[in-house]
Amino acid sequence: MPGWGNRRGGRRRSAEDAESSPSTDDPGSGRGASRSAPADPREAAREICLRQLAVRPRTRAELATAMRKHGVADDIAAEILDRYDEVGIIDDAAFARAWVTSRHHGRGLSRRALAGELRRKGVSSDEVGEALDQLAPDVEEQTARDLVARRLRVESNAAPEVAFRRIVGMLARKGYPPGLAIRLVKEALADRDAAAAEFADSIDPDALADSTLEPDSR
């Protein structure tokens, strides 16, 4: 039967073709080989760093952590990072200065809060200190004073004691010392109205600074 013979021949040829065609499962053939071939470890490390840097500037320690999480050997990571240091792709001192400027003026964070953030990012103590030197104490206090004024407008209908607790708590979360926070809020309340001024007059900043004030969650 010609049809059957053709079908058998067709089947036989298909099987032969399959045996002679490269398999994607064969590690030495075709596209399967390119997919399974290991990437150059240095190139993989560079790609990890560039993906991180595309989001925002990073410190050396942050990039080292990212590579370690992806299994990059420490010696290769150090080689890549040393090269990035040389060409200025990473610069912890410049990162710290920019971080202080952005986070202080944008979020109102204190020197203490900024120092903590930079240390958690792996910036050295010397570089943290140099970055914070650009933030003068009087500038920091004025920023805190501005924060108090803005928040007091939000709390305009709150009872003086409630506004006091909330605003001091807000400053505490931004890293300002209790003594400074209490003094600034006391001064602002004294200028708000008669009831707030009376409450402010009863505040002893020194005594309260030594006590534990639970920051309001707002």
UniProtKB/TrEMBL annotation:
Its main location: cytoplasm. Residues 45-83 form the RecX first three-helical domain. The keyword Cytoplasm applies. Residues 91-132 form the RecX second three-helical domain. The keyword Magnesium does not apply. Keywords: Cytoplasm. Gene3D superfamilies: Winged helix-like DNA-binding domain superfamily/Winged helix DNA-binding domain. It is found in: Cytoplasm. Residues 1-44 are annotated as: Disordered. It comes from the Bacteria. Modulates RecA activity. Belongs to the RecX family. This is Regulatory protein RecX. It comes from Dactylosporangium roseum.
